[in-house]
Amino acid sequence: MLSRASKYAVLSTLFLAEHSNVDKKISVKVVAESIDVPNPFLAKLFQQLVRGKIISSTKGPNGGFFLTEKNRQKNVLDIIENIDGLNKFNDCFLGLNECDSKNPCPVHFIVEPFKNSLLGKFRDKTIQEFSKEISENGRVLTLKGLDLS
Amino acid sequence: MLSRASKYAVLSTLFLAEHSNVDKKISVKVVAESIDVPNPFLAKLFQQLVRGKIISSTKGPNGGFFLTEKNRQKNVLDIIENIDGLNKFNDCFLGLNECDSKNPCPVHFIVEPFKNSLLGKFRDKTIQEFSKEISENGRVLTLKGLDLS
DNA sequence: TCATTAAAAGATAAAAAGGTCTTTTAATAA
DNA sequence: TTATTAAAAGACCTTTTTATCTTTTAATGA
Ligand code: FES
Ligand code: FES
Questions:
Q1: How far apart are CA B79 and CA A94, in angstroms?
Q2: Fewer CB atoms inside 10 A, N or C side of chain B?
Q3: In terms of DSSP H, where are the helices of chain B?
Q4: Residue A24 has pLDDT above 60, yes or no
Q5: B57 to chain A nearest CA, in Å?
Q6: Does any ligand 1 atom lie closer than 6 A to the CB of residue A91?
Q7: In chain A, what residues touch B117 (CB-CB under 8 Å)?
Q8: Interchain pair B103, A134: CB under 8 A
Q9: Which chain A positions have a beta carbon within 8 Å of B11's beta carbon?
Q10: Closest residue by C-alpha to C1' distance, nucleotide D17
């Protein structure tokens, strides 16, 4: 479904939402270790997320990555769009074309309703709201050190 | 979402459902050209689909690929399972683990209902039924030679 | 049985995705 | 203004997926 890059991007952005703010910046290293994701790969990813205004950064001592209030108004789809683009969602499930009800593939009318509805849900909820839910209801950002019995 | 291999597998199996039967076998070449898919790649794929009992084949003159009545009772999920496996559907949307309501990731309760419902729809409809719908209602198996205006 | 036809098998090549490493730039605090 | 810190940038490597090519095997009809 999503590329690994996109998955890491969502997880790490939500991690920053939970643990960072303008006065508390976090280095790639700490984020990478916290959510158990390859450090140099995440570094690359963060560069792109900064360019895409999804997250913020400053260099130098006490520098690092963090989310501003504005960053927190973005939604999950913005993150995915910044990394993978939205083609994955717009394209035909069987790879024919731009998914199109005028020339539907055999599974088109099965898949299309789900796609639109899912897309909506990812668009309607801000990072801030996700963060709130994570801290209130407990959501997992990594399986690292988790006892799965 | 699906690998290209899976997409080709679904399309070509539905093509065989439409155009072949025990008395009318079709060569890879014809299928590949008809649905506009790379010939040698499809040949490899067909080998695997035959082993997985999704489609049937015979060698020699007048040989080729075709669907038996039994083949037609399989569903789309059987095809996908044979090529990609079902991990894509069982795994967590954010790549954490086997998707699990006990340790839900931040998007778990958004994604899970869709996943199950979509899975069900792909399991409930046989190739035969798809084929019927294709011939009755017109569904596109390729964009080759299609005038998209 | 023998030539022909078409799939099966397997080796190989190209492209894309995933991951790593090194050097450069900018911020800051001493 | 300088040493230090951490991100930015870019080059590079590995693995997986996608695609191709060649040889072998099996079925058939003459
Ligand atoms: S045309 Fe294939 S999913 Fe819409
Ligand atoms: S745990 Fe992530 S989708 Fe279920």
A1: 13
A2: C
A3: 4-19, 28-35, 39-51, 69-72, 76-84, 87-90, 108-124, 127-133
A4: yes
A5: 24
A6: no
A7: 114
A8: no
A9: 94, 105
A10: B3
- Please give the C-alpha separations between residue A131 and each of A74, A126, B105, B116, in angstroms, as whole numbers: 12, 9, 12, 26
Ligand in nearest proximity to the CA of B97: 2
pLDDT surpassing 80 at residue A148: no
The stretch B3-25 carries a mean pLDDT of 95
pLDDT score recorded for residue B146: 58
Which of A127-131, A144-148, B52-56 shows the lowest per-residue confidence on average (mean pLDDT)? A144-148
Does the pLDDT at position A62 exceed 90? no
Q: How far is CA A68 from CA A43, A71, A128, B51, in A?
A: 19, 5, 10, 55
> Relative to the alpha carbon of B139, which ligand is closest?
1
**What's residue A142's pLDDT?**
87
For B40, residues 6+ apart whose C-beta sits below 8 A from its C-beta are none
Q: Which residues contact B140 (CB under 8 A, 6 or more apart)?
A: A96, A103, A104, A105, B146
- For the record, the structure tokens of A31 come out as 């984020």
* Nearest Cβ partner for B121 among A110, A121, A141: A110
Tens of pLDDT along A66-104?
999 999 999 999 999 999 999 888 899 999 978 989 999
Write down the pTM of the prediction: 0.91
Architecture field, domain A4-85+126-137: Orthogonal Bundle (1.10)
CA distance A108 to A95: 11
